[in-house]
Predict the structure.
Amino acid sequence: MAAGAPVSRRAVLTGAGALVVAGALGAAGVATGVVPGSAGIRRRLGFVGPDGVVPDVVAGAVTTRSVESAARGTRVSIATMTPAGVDAAGLPVLLALHGRGANAQTLVDLGLPEFLTAAVQAGAPPFAIAAVDGGDRYWHAVGSDDPQGMLRDEVPAWLADAGLGAVFGVLGISMGAFGALLWARLAATPPSAVVTISPALFLSWGDAQVRDVFVDEADWAASEPLRHLDALDGSTLGVWCGTEDPFERAAHELVDGTGATAAHFDAGAHTDGYWRRVLPDALTFAAAAAPRG
């Protein structure tokens, strides 16, 4: 439309209608906690919040090695990350478990090395992070592929070979949170910190079955953290989940069933942007449990 041209009555009514629709969407979201419409509409209305950014710091050392895992029956990559400006010898280790379709390098690319250095520079006691390839089967054993056996029996020796100390806690994102909770339940010594971000948990066998990673319902029930809440220590558990995340309801059940020490539900979706936004708080929570040298 040319500048100065008269505005038609139809255009005015159309614009007003759009405002009414937007207002109705916002009101519905406030009333129900679920915003109807596409993800794009929900983002424009601010229901997913801002994306987090990788800290503008010089990362510490990142070392990636390829090792043979007898437990998984294949070679895997393990990436160890240490904070800049700190003597890495003997540092306690936080395990970092990746989501489905990802691997150890994915967590490096997410910015964990920078987030780690930023946390220590902000006053957290120094610790290291180790990420390892766990496959796509929710970090549980299927046939001869046993990621939990790898975490339990092999990772400690790999960390010792790298000059690092013992594992004190675990952080998992999405599928990795499922694995972190499973590891916490099966570990011989309970971890001092369990951090779950956007935990991919299943309220029913029907929800889990569509992932096509569990042998049968019994296999899922034996692994599903929500079926074993009494075995999890809420005093060491932190949960972060966005209100636009499809796993939000399951995350609330995790919090309600364990009495998690830290429970954060704010605007956010199941995205890298949300994970980067909450990682500073999540690492601060984990660092508080790290043993001090």
